[in-house]
Design goal:
alpha/beta, single chain, two-stranded antiparallel ribbon, 674 residues, 9 strands, seven-stranded mixed sheet
Length: 674
C-alpha cells in the first residue's frame, strides 16, 4: 500500500521534530479543552456562587451552635474546678461565637433570618452577663471561705485546745466534742457548696448548734480563772460563723437563681434561633442545588460530545507518533533490557541512520561491550558485601550477648546484696541495743560495703540499658537546695573514709528544676564519689548556681577537689566505659567498675546539658555540669567525646552543635563566668 505524501514527509523528520509535532497537536487540543471548560465554568459560576453563599450561611450558624455547646462545657468546667484555663477557654469560645454572629449579620438578607439573628444577639449578651454574675458570686463566696471562715475555724479550734487542759476529764471531752463539731460543720458546708443538698445545710447548722451546746455545758462546769473569757471568745467566734454561713447560703441561692433564670433560658433561646437560621439556609441551599444539578447535566452532555471529537483527533495523532517513534524506541528498549538482564546476543536497530535512534543504537552497542566487565565487578562487590554482612551480624550478636550477660548478672547480684544490706542494718541495730559497739562498727562497714556493691550493680544495669537504648527520662519538679543537701549527706561516708572535708557552696533559694531527679542526683553522687576516692586528707567542694544561657535558665553544678589531678589529654579516656582513673593517674587502684564518669556523660547528654572538665596533676580536678532548668528533648545525639572549649564553640542551640565534653582551665570557682 503506497504511503501518502504527507506521511512520507512526516517520517523523514527527525525524532525530536516528530515528537514536537505530537506535543503541538496535544497542546492545541488542551487549549481547546480549556476554552470549552472556561465557558462551562463561567456558566456554572453564577449558580455556584449563590449556592455557596447559602451553604456558608448554614455552616456558620451550625458552627455558632457548636461553639455555644463548647462554651457551656467550658463554663461548667470552670464552675466545677475553678481553674483559670477553663475561664480562658470560655472567654475564647464566647469571642468565637461573637465573631460568627458578626459574620451572620453581614451575610443574612432574609427578614426572618434577620429577626432570629437579633434575638440571638440579645440572648447572647444576657447569657454572658449572667455568666459573669455567677463567676463574681463564686469568687466572692470563695473569698469569704478563705478569708473569713477558715481563719475563724482555726481560731475556734485554738481556743478549744486551751480549754481542754483547763479542767478535768469532762472539760476535755466537751472541748474535744466542740472542736469535732466545728470541723464537721466545715465539712458539711463544703459538701453543701458542692452538691446543693439541703440536708447538708441542715447538718451544717446542727453541728454548729452542737458546738454551741457543748460550749454552754462547759460554761456550767468550768469556773477556773481565764476559762470564762476563752468560752466567751469561742461563743463569739461561733456567732460570727453563724453569720458567715447565712451569707454563704444566700450566695448559693443567688448563684442558683442566676444560673436558672439567666443562663439556661438564654442558652436555649440562642440554640433555637441559630437552628431556625440554619434550617432556612439548608432549605434554600437544597433548592439551589437542584437547579445547579439540572444545569450541570446539560453542560455535561455538551462537554461529552466535544470531548469525544477531541479524543478521536488525539487518537489519530497518537497513532502517527507511535508508528514513527514508538516502534523503533520499543525495539531499542528491548535490546537494552536484554543487555541489563545479562544477555549479549541481542539484535540492535539499524546503526547507519542519522537520526537519534541510530545514535542510541551505537551507544547501546558500546554498553553491550562493557556489560561483561560490569558483571564481573558486580560479582566481586557482592562477595565483599556478603562477607561484611556476616561480620556485622556476628558483631551485633556479640553485643547483644554482652548486654544480656550484664543485665542477668546484675539482677542475680542485686537481690542477695540488698538482703545483705538489710540484714546488716537489722544486725547493727541489735548490736547497738546490746552495747556491742565494736561489732556494730564492723557490721556498719559490711553494710556500707554492701551498699557500694549495690551501687556498682545499679551502674552496670544502667549502662546495659543505655547500650540497649531502653533508658528513659522521668520528669518531675524538685528543689535544688534540697538535692544538694541530700547528695552531700550521702557522700559524707566516702569523704570521711579518705579523711576529706566535704563542703557545700550554694546560695539559698536556687529554685526548682523540671528534669529527671534520679539522673541528676546520681550524676552528682558519681562525681563526689570520684572526688573523694582520689583525694586523701584534702577538701572536696560541691557548688551550684543559677545562670542564663541560650536565652533560658540553666544550673551549673561544680565538683572540685584538691586531689592528685590528671593530665588534660586523658579527659576523653576517663569518660570511656570500664576505664579506671587510677590507671591514668598512676595511683593505687580504687574500687569501682570504671562506669561512674561514663554514666555521668550519658545522663548529661540525655538531659540536654554538657560537661566541662579542668584538671592538672598535683593541683586537683574540677568537673562542671551545665543542665537546663526545664528539660526539653535534645534534637540530636552527641557523642561522648572531647570537643573544643565551650568559649571557642560557636553559639548554637542545645544539642545541634555544642560538644558534650569540653576541657577548661583549672581556676577557682569564683572566677568562672556564666
Amino acid at each position: 500500500m503506497p504511503r501518502l505524501p504527507s506521511l512520507r514527509r512526516f517520517n523523514d523528520l527527525s525524532v525530536a521534530r516528530r515528537i514536537s509535532v505530537g506535543f503541538g497537536v496535544a497542546l492545541a487540543l488542551v487549549v481547546l479543552v480549556m476554552l470549552i471548560g472556561l465557558g462551562w465554568m463561567y456558566a456554572l459560576s453564577r449558580d455556584i456562587g449563590s449556592y455557596s453563599a447559602t451553604a456558608d450561611l448554614g455552616q456558620i450558624a451550625a458552627e455558632a451552635d457548636i461553639g455555644l455547646r463548647d462554651l457551656e462545657v467550658s463554663i461548667r468546667d470552670h464552675l466545677v474546678y475553678g481553674d483559670d484555663q477553663s475561664l480562658l477557654d470560655a472567654t475564647l469560645r464566647h469571642d468565637g461565637i461573637v465573631e460568627r454572629v458578626a459574620l451572620l449579620d453581614k451575610a443574612v438578607a432574609d427578614p426572618a433570618d434577620r429577626a432570629s439573628l437579633t434575638k440571638v444577639k440579645g440572648s447572647l449578651d444576657a447569657y454572658w452577663a449572667a455568666v459573669q454574675r455567677v463567676i463574681a458570686i463564686r469568687n466572692a463566696r470563695n473569698a469569704v471561705l478563705a478569708g473569713e471562715l477558715e481563719p475563724l475555724v482555726a481560731q475556734a479550734r485554738d481556743r478549744l485546745s486551751l480549754l481542754k487542759s483547763a479542767g478535768g476529764v469532762d472539760s476535755t471531752a466537751l472541748a474535744s466534742d466542740a472542736a469535732i463539731a466545728v470541723l464537721l460543720m466545715q465539712e458539711h458546708l463544703t459538701r453543701f457548696l458542692e452538691r446543693r443538698d439541703p440536708q447538708d445545710a441542715g447538718r451544717m447548722r446542727a453541728e454548729l448548734a452542737n458546738a454551741r451546746g457543748k460550749l454552754a455545758e462547759m460554761n456550767r462546769y468550768l469556773w477556773i480563772a481565764g476559762t470564762q473569757q476563752a468560752i466567751t471568745e469561742v461563743g463569739q467566734l461561733l456567732d460570727r460563723a453563724d453569720g458567715i454561713l447565712t451569707r454563704l447560703e444566700s450566695a448559693v441561692a443567688e448563684e442558683d437563681t442566676a444560673r436558672s433564670e439567666g443562663m439556661a433560658p438564654n442558652a436555649a433561646g440562642i440554640a433555637a434561633n441559630l437552628t431556625e437560621i440554619r434550617q432556612r439556609a439548608e432549605a434554600r441551599a437544597g433548592s439551589l442545588r437542584s437547579a445547579l444539578a439540572a444545569g450541570a447535566s446539560g453542560y455535561a452532555t455538551a462537554a461529552l460530545w466535544t470531548g469525544g471529537i477531541l479524543l478521536l483527533v488525539g487518537l489519530v495523532a497518537v497513532w502517527l507518533i507511535q508508528r514513527s517513534v514508538g516502534r523503533p524506541v520499543n525495539a531499542m528498549a528491548s535490546a537494552v533490557t536484554a543487555i541489563a538482564a545479562g544477555r549479549t546476543d541481542v539484535t540492535l536497530p539499524a546503526l547507519s541512520g542519522q537520526d537519534e535512534i541510530a545514535a542510541m543504537a551505537r551507544a547501546v552497542e558500546i554498553l553491550r561491550d562493557t556489560s561483561i566487565e560490569s558483571e564481573r565487578r558486580l560479582e566481586e562487590a557482592q562477595a565483599l558485601q556478603d562477607r561484611l554482612a556476616r561480620e556485622k551480624d556476628r558483631a551485633e550478636a556479640d553485643s547483644v550477648a554482652k548486654t544480656n550477660f550484664l543485665v542477668n548478672m546484675g539482677h542475680e547480684l542485686h537481690g542477695p546484696l540488698t538482703d545483705i544490706v538489710n540484714s546488716s542494718q537489722s544486725l547493727m541495730s541489735e548490736l547497738h541495743r546490746f552495747g556491742a559497739d565494736e561489732l556494730a562498727t564492723d557490721v556498719e562497714h559490711i553494710q556500707w560495703t554492701g551498699e557500694q556493691l549495690v551501687s556498682l550493680v545499679d551502674a552496670l544495669l544502667d549502662y546495659a540499658k543505655i547500650e540497649a537504648g531502653t533508658m528513659d527520662v522521668v520528669l518531675q519538679d524538685f528543689d535544688i537546695n534540697r538535692l544538694l543537701v541530700e547528695v552531700r549527706e550521702r557522700s559524707m561516708p566516702a569523704a570521711d573514709l579518705h579523711g576529706n572535708s566535704l563542703d557545700l557552696a550554694a546560695a539559698a533559694g536556687l529554685g526548682q528544676m523540671n528534669s529527671d531527679f534520679t539522673k541528676v542526683r546520681q550524676a552528682l553522687l558519681n562525681l563526689l564519689d570520684n572526688a573523694c576516692k582520689f583525694t586523701e586528707g584534702g577538701s572536696v567542694t560541691l557548688a551550684a548556681e543559677k545562670t542564663e544561657r541560650d536565652g533560658g535558665i540553666w544550673y551549673r553544678f561544680t565538683v572540685s577537689d584538691t586531689g592528685r589531678g590528671f593530665p588534660a589529654a586523658q579527659t576523653g579516656r576517663l569518660f570511656q566505659p570500664f576505664v579506671q582513673g587510677a590507671a591514668l593517674t598512676g595511683g593505687v587502684s580504687r574500687r569501682g567498675a570504671g562506669l561512674g564518669l561514663t554514666l555521668v556523660g550519658h545522663y548529661t547528654a540525655m538531659l540536654g546539658g554538657d560537661i566541662e572538665v579542668a584538671s592538672e596533676p598535683g593541683r586537683g580536678t574540677r568537673i562542671t555540669l551545665f543542665l537546663p532548668a526545664t528539660y526539653s528533648p535534645p534534637p540530636a545525639d552527641r557523642p561522648l567525646q572531647v570537643g573544643p572549649p565551650a568559649d571557642a564553640a560557636p553559639a548554637d542551640p542545645v544539642g545541634s552543635g555544642r560538644p558534650l565534653l569540653t576541657v577548661g582551665a583549672l581556676r577557682p570557682v569564683a572566677q568562672l563566668t556564666p
